[in-house]
Amino acid sequence: MRQRYHLNDRQKLVIEIEQFQNQHMERSSNYDSLKKSIKDQIKLLCDEDYLGNRRKCMECGIRIRNGVKELEAINVELNSLRAKLSENFKKKYGAYQRILNLKQLYLEETINYYQHCSYINKVYQLAEEKDVAALGEMASSEVEKFMLEWNNNKAFREDYAKNVLQSLERRKLSGDGRIRPDKYKGDSPLHPNILHT
Fold first, then answer.
1. Tens of pLDDT along 108-142?
2. Burial code of 124-142, b = ≥16 C-beta within 10 A, e = fewer?
3. 75 or 15: whose pLDDT is higher?
4. What is the dihedral of CA 95, 100, 101, 105, to 10 degrees?
5. What single DSSP character describes residue 185?
6. Please, are residues 174 and 180 in contact by the beta-carbon 8 Å criterion?
7. CA-to-CA dists, residue 179 to 167, 176, 182, angstroms
8. Is residue 168 over pLDDT 60?
């Protein structure tokens, strides 16, 4: 029994020794592989190709950083140009609106002139045809229209008075349409207020 016990102890010791040797071999092989990988890394770091590639990578990184800075500068300039373009579009739109308003004002200002020209042409035509009755009807119709507008529209009266006075002034006539006396020539004449006549 004692021998058996010693035998068991001995076997256990042998097994433990074998396990220890196996572990030692595994560790030493791990150590060797680690040592080899470190040597490979050192060799790789010291390798000229790697250093050249690393330099190229660094140069590429610098170029990329410079490119990013240039791109940011271009974006800033582009945003500035977009803002200016937007402002110019607003100005252009405003100018276009002013042109339309001026055209509308021009049409409003000249419509009376063209109506008057059309009326005069019709009068000449009727005069050539010697149609006195039609001329009389036209005259009375126009007088009625004028008097109706004069009596009901203060703005019309003011505009008419302003235009008549300007016309008289240009022709060097007094406010009632007569030729100015010599003492008023060169002076601005006093015009009577024709709004209340």
1. 878 878 888 898 999 999 889 988 899 899 899 98
2. eebeeeeeeeeeeeeeeee
3. 75
4. 140
5. T
6. yes
7. 13, 9, 9
8. yes
Q: Residue 25 is encoded by which pair of tokens?
A: 């071999």
Look up residue 14 and give its DSSP letter.
Answer: H
pLDDT (0 to 100) of residue 5: 54
Amino acid found at 185: K
Task: Label residue 98 by pLDDT band (50, 70, 90).
Answer: very high
CB 180 within 8 A of CB 189: yes
Report yes or no: 187 and 194 within 8 Å, Cβ to Cβ.
no
- Are 94 and 103 a contacting pair, CB within 8 Å? no
Residue located via tokens 């008023």: 184
